[in-house]
Write a structure and sequence with these properties.
Elements (H helix, E strand, L loop, with lengths): L4 H9 L8 E2 L5 E6 L2 E2 L7 E8 L2 E12 L2 H4 L11 E8 L14 E3 L6 H11 L16 H29 L4 H13 L5 H10 L3 H4 L5 H11 L10 H17 L20 H14 L3 H7 L3 H6 L13 E3 L2 E2 L9 H22 L3 H12 L7 H8 L7 H15 L8 H6 L1
Parallel strand pairs: 5-6, 6-7
Antiparallel strand pairs: 1-2, 2-4, 3-4, 4-5, 8-9
Length: about 425
């Protein structure tokens, strides 16, 4: 028996034990009226089951095990949550199990009841060495069913990520603007410099910027100073101005900068260097007042994108990637791919989370609409599913695919996946 308990859940849930009359191991007739609801929390596997044993109708829970002795291994006899189990469904009946009142728990033996090809199909899926278990079969599944499950998986992804937002919101005592600022800063670090950008936001509360809203140089000084880039020897006039401003502001606000060594320049294109990203982030701060409140009011995805276009990045960066090294023709604006990354990973997430918490379903729908109007990501994982025949039209689909890969395919949870179940 090289299969998990979830395989028997699959057999029970979809009534794949055949059309023959069922009996307990003691020969009593069983009629399954309702197979119940799969329980994903602690307690018996299926709740609200209704069945007949001989002439008696029972309503309660069903527990499923590979072996009946697993009941004792898991110590269910000590757990009051299992007192309402009306049927023990097993693959092998190797020991009798009794209720607390001393009565024998009825057993349904599944071994031999379901077609052998179901187990063969399952074993082929989970033993697959392809990029994902159903890579060779997924193109055979109806696109409507694939898209239906992807919609559900996308909601799972947003709910998981929104848990991080809620935790940060709790730490920041319900301040949505400050929470949004922290996530936006982290996003501007993209993968390589996300951690130092997050540390920067933690060391530099957003409310300090409000006091210097009319002075872009001071905002730039605060950001580059806190990032540690103004602690070095600087040659040009602009960085020297930043340094002087920062030294004054550092004393005024009792600031402690992060270490410059945390920033990563290696293995990244100059366009992604942290210095340029910090300059763009500073320009966004200068250009946007009460940004989160604005985003809640903007309905058109194109208007959201324009927030991150034509940022007032200081002209110094048109000829520099570093403070002390001049170059030529630097593109100082965020590229479309970077803007889409921010719209997907921060704006869509916050529209969803705020909508959930505040019961504003129009914002949840706006989150979905934003993803539907953005082009699909184009990374290694997405290419694997496209090559297998999955139609990935937009960021809504690509975000769902990333979640599918992470939470289902990588963990071989084919029995929890509508696509996997259809193939089985």
């Amino acid at each position: 028996m090289n299969f998990p308990e979830e395989f028997l859940h699959f057999i029970w849930q979809f009534r794949l034990y055949g059309a023959q009359k069922l009996h307990t191991t003691d020969g009593e007739a069983i009629e399954i009226i309702q197979q119940g609801i799969l329980n994903k929390n602690a307690g018996p596997d299926f709740n609200n089951v209704k069945l007949k044993i001989n002439d008696t109708t029972w309503v309660g829970n069903v527990e499923i095990h590979i072996k009946s002795s697993d009941w004792l291994v898991h110590k269910h006899e000590l757990d009051s949550a299992y007192e309402n189990v009306i049927l023990h469904v097993v693959y092998e009946d190797d020991t009798p199990v009794y209720r607390k009142d001393g009565t024998l728990l009825p057993v349904l033996l599944l071994k031999g009841l379901f077609p052998s090809h179901l187990l063969n199909n399952y074993e082929q899926l989970i033993s697959s060495t392809n990029n994902f278990p159903c890579e060779k079969q997924i193109h055979e599944v109806d696109e409507f069913q694939v898209n239906g499950f992807l919609s559900r998986v996308l909601v799972e992804r947003l709910e998981q990520k929104s848990a991080e937002v809620k935790e940060k919101l709790r730490v920041l005592k319900g301040d949505w603007d400050e929470t949004f600022y922290h996530f936006m800063a982290k996003n501007f670090g993209f993968k390589l410099n996300a951690i130092p950008m997050e540390m920067l936001a933690q060391s530099l509360p957003q409310h300090l910027f409000a006091k210097h809203k009319d002075n872009p140089l001071q905002i730039e000084a605060l950001i580059f100073g806190q990032a540690g880039f103004l602690n070095q020897s600087l040659e040009d006039e602009y960085p020297q101005q930043l340094k002087r401003e920062y030294q004054f502001l550092q004393k005024k606000y009792n600031l402690i900068s992060i270490d410059i060594s945390l920033w990563k320049f290696m293995r990244t294109r100059p366009q992604n260097f942290p210095t340029l990203r910090l300059a763009q982030f500073a320009a966004l701060i200068v250009n946007s007042n009460h940004l989160f409140s604005k985003i809640l009011l903007i309905k058109n995805h194109r208007d959201l994108q324009q927030i991150f276009e034509n940022l007032p990045v200081h002209s110094f960066w048109k000829t520099h990637y570093h403070f002390n090294k001049q170059t030529e023709d630097v593109g100082v604006q965020l590229g479309q791919k970077s803007i889409h990354n921010i719209l997907i990973n921060t704006l869509s997430l916050f529209l969803f989370t705020y909508g959930k918490i505040m019961d504003q379903y129009k914002l949840i729908n706006r989150s979905f609409a934003l993803l539907e109007n953005l082009s699909a990501e184009n990374n290694v994982i997405i290419k694997q599913y496209v090559s297998a025949g999955v139609n990935i039209k937009n960021a809504f689909n690509s975000q769902a695919i990333l979640q599918l890969k992470k939470s289902y395919c990588n963990q071989k949870k084919c029995l929890n996946c509508v696509i996997g179940i259809k193939i089985l």
